[in-house]
Design brief:
- The chain is mostly helical.
- The N terminus is likely disordered.
């Protein structure tokens, strides 16, 4: 009951608010009911123990969603590790072989790349996949990339003949003759064949010819530079003769003022 104005409210009674004052808002409990007693009793705004009930519904939903996200992150920890499957890698390699035989270099390359994605990092089969992909790059004349794949294959299998042979080809195409010769010598050591030894001889000759051309180019540049300097003294590089010593390969310089 409500006490009359000016009187003292009886125990348990609710005092009437002053005239014109707004009544406090009533928030429904979690159960949604408005009956008295128990946990469904409506709470007055500002009362103890009602802070969560008084949160706007959208804020409560956001908090619950954040909690769910946090739980999802905890459950997802440790996931994301790459899934390896050597059988799928072998299937991709077989597809690459079929594409290569059909002359479809790019499709074969893609299949070998997929095989590498499926293969565990410590699988010896990776050497074959790298080497096969290098063959595709050679067909496409992408020499440097082919060389890199052959090197990757040789890191797995250091005496892999096909990888050595294909890297030799890639290096020779780039005029990296010293590197190509090193691979040729390794092949000759492994194979012990006449063909491998012939490749070594051919590359040795080719490298020697390249070095001689480089020497001539260097001497030509030095001669031009010398003429610029000696011209101030009425001389030229023609007054100097360079004769190569066949035994040592070095040059002896002599001066001829009448030349």
């Amino acid at each position: 009951s409500i006490a009359a104005p000016g009187s003292i409210p009886a125990p348990g009674a609710i005092a009437a608010p002053p005239a014109g004052a707004a009544l406090p808002a009533i928030a429904p409990s979690r159960g949604g009911g408005t009956s008295s007693g128990g946990s469904d009793t409506p709470q007055v705004n500002g009362g103890a123990g009602v802070r969560e009930n008084l949160r706007p519904p959208d804020i409560r939903a956001d908090l619950e969603a954040d909690e769910d996200d946090d739980e999802g992150e905890d459950e997802g920890e440790g996931e994301g590790e790459p899934a390896f499957d050597l059988l799928k890698a072998q299937d991709a390699k077989a597809l690459g072989n079929a594409r290569f035989a059909a002359g479809e270099w790019q499709l074969a390359l893609d299949a070998y790349t997929e095989a590498l994605m499926w293969a565990p990092s410590d699988a010896e089969e990776r050497a074959v996949y790298f080497c096969n992909r290098a063959a595709c790059f050679l067909k496409m004349e992408q020499w440097e990339t082919a060389e890199g794949d052959c090197t990757a294959a040789l890191e797995v299998q250091p005496r892999y003949v096909k990888a050595l042979s294909r890297r030799l080809q890639a290096c020779e195409a780039q005029e990296k003759l010293s590197n190509a010769l090193a691979d040729a010598k390794m092949l000759a050591e492994i194979e012990q064949s006449a063909q491998a030894r012939a490749t070594v001889t051919r590359l040795e000759k080719k490298e020697a010819e390249k070095l001689e051309r480089e020497k001539e180019e260097m001497m030509g540049k030095l001669k031009d530079l010398g003429n610029m300097f000696l011209g101030n003294f009425g001389m030229s590089m023609n007054n100097f003769k360079a004769v190569q010593d066949e035994g040592t390969g070095s040059y002896n310089i002599s001066y001829d003022p009448n030349a």
